Amino acid sequence: MNYIWAGIMAVSLLFGMLNGRMDEITRAVLIGADDGVGLIIALMGGMCLWSGLMSIAEKSGITVYISHAFSPFLRLIFKNLDKNSKAARAICMNMTANLLGLGNAATPLGIEAMKELQKGNPDKNTASDNMVTFVVLNTASLQLIPATVAVLRSKNGAARPFDILPAVWTTTVIVLAVGLITCKLLERFSQRREQQKSCAEGLKT
């Protein structure tokens, strides 16, 4: 990514010089930096609030109840995952953060969940089926309250920041369903291929 961004900047400067528009590029850089700082400040309040609530929930034991609430769903999509394990709790908290539209708050919880899943992975050099499923679940996440998007819309003058809720719900449900179905189909295909490979090796011996 560093090389890509450096290349974009270099190409922009080159064409700016060739077209005699360096003044516009300079203004864009300064305005962009100012907008970036303003965006961080605008998001900071909401992120601090929800991250703090998530931390309180974890320390007060609410995560255990959340884990039990999500346990039927977890048993459906994750194989042999203990609902009382650290991995299950981290996955549940990650799902909760994504439900609230807090992608940044969900990131550290997702990393913790992946570390816990890796501990139970027999092949440390290959992602397990549960790890792949979790990546799909985290990426194509269901959002009930798109808090981050609502903050951005409010900052940019939207009179009703949450009027996008029906579109967000419809889109995320479809994306999540397609992602999980595709993941499970590929998982079965991989298992069948492994079984065929094992049978072929058994016949050879």
* Mean pLDDT across all amino acids: 79
The arrangement of helices and strands along the chain is HHHHHHHH
Tally of structural domains: 1
Radius of gyration: 22 Å
Give the overall silhouette.
Answer: globular
**Main beta sheet, described?**
none
Number of strands: 0
| Unreliable residue runs | none
Share of β-strand residues: under 5%
Based on helices, strands and strand pairing, what is the structural class? Answer: mainly alpha
Can you walk me through this structure?
This protein is mainly alpha-helical and 205 residues long. The chain has one domain (47-204). The chain contains eight helices and no strands. The protein has helices spanning 2-18, 22-60, 62-77, 86-99, 103-119, 129-139, 147-155, 165-204. The radius of gyration is 22 Å and the shape is globular. The relative contact order is 0.08. The mean pLDDT is 79.
Question: Brief overview, please?
Answer:
The chain is an all-alpha fold and 205 residues long.
